[in-house]
Here is the input.
Amino acid sequence: MKSKYLSAAAALLCVAGLAACGGKGNGSLNLGVQVFGIDREGLVLQNNGGDDLVITGTGSALYYFKTLMAPDAQFNVTIKSAPANVTCKLANNTGKINYYTYQQASVTCTPDAFTLGGTVSGLQGTGLVLANGAQTLGVTADGAWQFTTPIGNRSVYGVTVLTQPSNQTCSVSGGGNNLGAGTMPAEAVTSVRVTCVNKVS
Here is the structure.
């Protein structure tokens, strides 16, 4: 309830002091947009086909269009451009602006995700389990392997051996840093190599 009163108070301040809201125009309301999940530059929004709003920050934040709007004027927030390898979706982006709707529009951005995998060689024992963070994968034979859940572009990955197979020791190489780790590119990673050798008695 308190936050509702604060939002209403902020709207009234926009009416009383236009300069404080950072806008110019003949109206009295700044149209705000909640942006969620952005992790890079390149997102540009528009209202009614103009008034470009360049999103320069990362994470989640509230942004305002510069042009002030008259109460009950129609708004239509669209995406003019989005960052490469990111999918952005709008919600509550059309309507008539008033003290209840001036902050209702939102855009949620998610990096495109790609698969992480590689190959296993020399495996003879049983029980090999690979891990990437919380993801785990049991491998039973030589050949190609792949984690089930794709990983977002620019996210960090690091493949490790969680459980060694019986009577063998496996090591990880390849990937972005040749140690099974790296930053996810805008394509599938298939270069992580797991090599297993027999334990010396």
Notes: The helical segments are 2-16. The CA atoms of residues 153 and 186 lie 6 Å apart. Confidence is low (pLDDT under 50) at residues 1-24. The two ends are 70 Å apart (CA to CA).
